[in-house]
Amino acid sequence: MRKVEIYTKNWCGYCRAAKHLLEKLGLEYQEIDVTYDQERYGEMLKRAQGRSTVPQIFIDDEAIGGYTDLYGKVQRSEF
Hints:
The chain is α+β, with helices and mostly antiparallel strands.
């Protein structure tokens, strides 16, 4: 089973869409809410090589990007 992590903020519509897509694909994920957690947000920035938008999605520790990146992978059957 793949290890899926998603950094989110509680007001983010793209975060909700990404979680919904992961659920639709039947994938379990660990959500890391960085809304008020600057330490975890800094962790996300480092892991995502400076990308500061949410969501940031990691699959098996590989940075996938955000919702549109995930959606694109699904559409291209890369996922």
